[in-house]
Amino acid sequence: MINVNETSSGALRRLLKATVAAGLVLAAFSGVANAASNCVKGDRKAPYTIGWANIYSVPTWMKQTEGTITAEVDELKKAGLVKDLMITDAQGNAQTQIQHIQSMIDANVDAIVVIAGSSNALDRVISDACDKGIAIVNFDSLVNTDKVTAKINTDSNEWGGEAAKWLVNQLGGKGKIIVMNGPAGISVSDDRRKGAQPVLDANKGIEIITETNTEYNVAPAQEAMTSLLFANQEIDGVLSLGGALSAGSVLAFDRQGREQVPITGENARQFLELWKEKGLKGWATMQPNWLGALSVYTAVQALEGKSVPAFIKVPLPVIDDSSIDSYLARADKFPADGYIYSDYDKALFDKLLAQ
Questions:
Q1: Domain check: are 173 and 218 in the same one?
Q2: Claim to verify: residue 213 and residue 259 sit in the same structural domain
Q3: Are 211 and 231 contained in the same domain?
Q4: How far apart are CA 124 and CA 40, in angstroms?
Q5: What protein family does this chain belong to (predicted)?
Q6: Which of 1, 57, 154, 169 has a CA positioned 20 to 30 A from the CA of residue 96?
Q7: Is 179 part of a structural domain of the chain?
Q8: Residues 193 and 148 in one domain
């Protein structure tokens, strides 16, 4: 005897399973189609409103970076892709930056570009913005959370490691050095220092006699190094992990009548000019100011439905005696206290996004 109810029930269960499975597959494909990049969701259409949540605008590097952001926004406005740019300045206060990002969320901007004033304090508000469907592009100083559309940076660990290797080689693996760091708690500064440590650990002949943290500005760096010079009569090298820091160090040595020592640094115009003028033994690399422009471009690409990498690594150039003249040849295009950065264009940006 056949139980009709049991047979119908089994068939129904099989039908439901098939329907659910098909629905999941369709949902998966739908998700890919509607959200190629993380965070981006909702009915967002060009022209977009972009938020630039700046941690501080005083250092020249930041002013130049903001200049590349506004220039990129102007280009995207011409293309009909951007309507407005909202700019805030937290004046170095991470809590103020959190409030500014919250105001951007409340205004329902389409994208937020941010240099983090703290690697962890911003996590909650950044995650909230992502949940609201806002494209989040974080560059230079990075947050811990991965709830962003993209993070863009050079490799700060590599930055510190390569600088340390050069200095160790210059000193023949033996000597007393001073380490100059940027502000403590800023990820780009902390990561450069972490990257240098394995190299220093592997070369026991290198003695760190002291180290300091200062703003990325020449005046405070010069003041800090002046104090260290009074306290330390024997210094063989300076592991400087920032361009303005290096310029400040060179000026301090000069004004105290101390002999210059091998020094690392960055593409700060003043440092490169002092390097050439005084015949320094120097090495430098570059944190390109156009990371800001690339961040805006990346955010708009994501909003347009393109898939962008979760992390975009920008290669580090090397500035040494063989290449410094090519940078100085372009010096008059940049502020006296600014950074001589390399050229950039859409083709470069597309190449980096294709990683």
A1: yes
A2: yes
A3: yes
A4: 17
A5: Belongs to the bacterial solute-binding protein 2 family.
A6: 154
A7: yes
A8: no
Domain assignment present for 326: no
Q: What is the DSSP string of 236-262?
A: -EEEE-SHHHHHHHHHHHHHTTPPP--
In tens digits, the chain (355 residues) has pLDDT values of 323 333 333 433 443 344 334 343 333 333 333 447 999 998 899 999 999 999 988 888 999 999 999 999 999 999 999 999 999 999 999 999 999 999 999 999 999 999 999 989 999 999 999 999 999 999 999 999 999 999 999 999 999 999 999 999 999 999 999 999 999 888 889 999 999 999 999 999 999 999 999 988 899 999 999 999 999 999 999 999 998 999 999 999 999 999 999 999 999 999 999 999 999 999 999 999 999 999 999 999 999 999 999 999 999 999 999 999 999 999 999 999 999 999 999 999 999 999 8
Q: Indicate whether 148 and 183 sit together in one domain.
A: no
Domain that holds residue 308: 48-154+290-315
Token pair 């006296």 is found at: 336
**Residue among 192, 178, 258 at smallest CA distance from 221:** 178
List Cβ<8 Å contacts ≥24 apart for 321-327: 321/282, 324/272, 324/275, 324/276, 324/282, 324/284, 325/276, 327/267, 327/272
**Structure tokens, 110:** 């389409």
pTM of the model: 0.83
Which helix (H) or strand (E) segment is 11 a member of?
helix 4-34
Give domain status of residue 332, yes or no.
no
Domain count, the chain: 2
